[in-house]
Every structure is written in C-alpha cells, then in structure tokens.
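Quarterly update from the structural biology core.
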Amino acid sequence: MKPLITLLLFSLTLITFSGNAQHLKIPQRKVNALTGSAFAASIRDSLLSLSEREELMLKEVEHGNVPDFYRSFLPVTDTANIEGKQYIIKYFVAPDYLVIGSDKDYFYAPLTAAAAQKIANKLNCSLPTRKMSDRIYQSAIFKLTPEPIPPSMKMMTVPVFEDHNRLVHQQLDRIGAKPGSLVAGNKKDVIISNKIAATDGTLRVVIYGWHKPDGKAIQPLYNGHKYDWVDYSHGIRLIQNQVYLNGRKTTIKKILKSKKLNVLLSDEDVIRIHYL
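Predicted structure, tokenized:
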C-alpha cells in the first residue's frame, strides 16, 4: 500500500509542477560553453557590425548557452470580466530578461526588435505587450530599482552593456535575489505593439517599462527609434506562445487577434502586427 501511496503523491507532484512551470526547449548547455563575461569579451570588438554581433548572440542562445535557472518559465495570471463572464488567463514567462552564460556568470543580451522577434519565433515564444509588461512586474518576486546610464552614442556598445550588466548583478546580490525567481525592474521591455508600424510606414522598435519601486514605468510606450536601434537598456522577455484560458490551451496570437478577448493581454485593442 505504501508504494502505491508514494507513487500517487509523486504523480500529483509532477502534475502540480507541470501546471506551474514550463521549460524552454533548447539544447543543454555544453561544458565548454562560454561564460557570460567571456562571451561579452568576445563580441567587444568594435569592428563587428550590429548584425554580426546579434547573429553571434542568437547562436549562443539557440545552442543552449543560457543558465539552467533561465530554462524554467514561470506562470503569470490575469483576469477580466468580458460580457458578464469571468476569464482567467495564465501564461509562462522567462524568470529574467534574455541572458547568455552560466548560472554564476551570465550576460544580459540587449537586442534590436528584429533580432528579439527572431529568437522568440525560433523558441516558440512571444515578446510581451505593454499590459503584459505591467502584469509581469506586478507578479515579480524581486523588483529591482532601475539604474540608468547617462545617454550617449556609447550606450549602443558592448562595453556599456557590460557596465550595466555589472550594476544589475550588484543589485541582485544586494537584495539576495534567488536565481530562477521572477525578476523585473532591471531593463525596459522590447514589446509587441500596434505602434511598431509608424505613421510614415516605417518599422520602429517599441519600448516600454523599466518600472520603479512605486510600480510606475520610467519609459512610457515609445516608438521614436528605428527598428534597428538597440541600447544597454533593452530587455528581451520571452513568453511561451501557449497559454491557458479558463484552463483550456490557446495561444497569445489568437488572444491578441480576438476582438473579444484581446483585453486579457492588450491595452491597445487588437494587435494588428504581431509576428514580423
């Protein structure tokens, strides 16, 4: 009887765990993979073009060079009353912004909107909307205080990426953040938005967030930069495409395109532009 009870308890544990975490499907990190600081040093060469640098970043992620803690996505829930019916949506988010390296030595990887969407697509993920960015911040266990670096053209370079990386890691250490817990407040979100397509027809990167401890975002929704802009403050938050709506599987894309249900994930009405 005892073995049967043990088996049942074990099965229930697995079911509970699977309902409260999802896992990033990428290769295991190789023993000889570069640490975050070593990788950052490898792309510090100013002769690298932006596209070359980002291709190297994406390859590291695709080949599994991310910390173990980054592989378990965490649930975030939200609710809305739509036409008199209560809806609960649950989606699974990366515990932190996109990082490269090991559990003990990882490097935050700022990307252009195009590269961010590319890696999201390859990993069957999405970027957040503004509404999702707010909800993720509200749900975070560890909320960091933003640490901006004075603006200059150097803010687009790897040395400044590294400087900000150190600032974030120092704050994570000070507050005793546990790797794998939901962290927010350390970067702005590169988001999906109807404002990706500007009024002049060009594509723009849309950024939002960098919430302060009072919950207010330093960065309002902004699309003033071209689509190939990236600086140290960009955070890439991956969210699994598959979500649960009142316990049933669906996708972020379907929710955002629904005239009825988009309010669960969007404060911009239906998102017309999504996967680019």
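Residues 1-18 have pLDDT under 50 and may be disordered.
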